[in-house]
Amino acid sequence: HMIFSSIKNLSENDFGQKYMACAAEFLATHNLNELPLGKTEIDGDNVFVNVMEFEPALPGEKDYEAHKIYADIHVVISGTESIAVAPLEQCVLKGEFNADADFGAYTNPGEETWVTLHAGDFLVTPPSDAHKPGCTLEKSVSKLKKAVMKVRVK
Questions:
Q1: Rounded distance, CA 125 to CA 130, Å?
Q2: How much of the chain is in helix, strand and coil states, percent to nearest 5?
Q3: How many whole angstroms separate alpha carbon 35 and alpha carbon 44?
Q4: What average pLDDT does the segment 40-64 reach?
């Protein structure tokens, strides 16, 4: 599986970093389909996972998002998800960045790369990459069940 980012952001994708290693260990030893919907703590605020189920949206219906403290590991449990990724420096913040939620919504006037994930696939988005998750590139599609692991990198 690929990890896609800019080479200048390599340090944010360090799977040897202790919280990334903790997340990788959890993924290797747990069946995500058996986790309840909502939040499951793994290592307090350092590593946790949110499991969700919803109907994917068309790309034009969603904003980009980005985080400053956490990397996201997007893992598809069932269904198909398309995620756009763009360098954060090319994106424009919409409104205020919510530091408490570590969340900002963005528009992207620049380049973007689309990745389509199937059951069992994952994608890592570090803070340097804005991303538009939860999308479908086709109109009629089944529900998506996914897990987003939040991994502290800063």
A1: 8
A2: 20, 45, 35
A3: 17
A4: 96
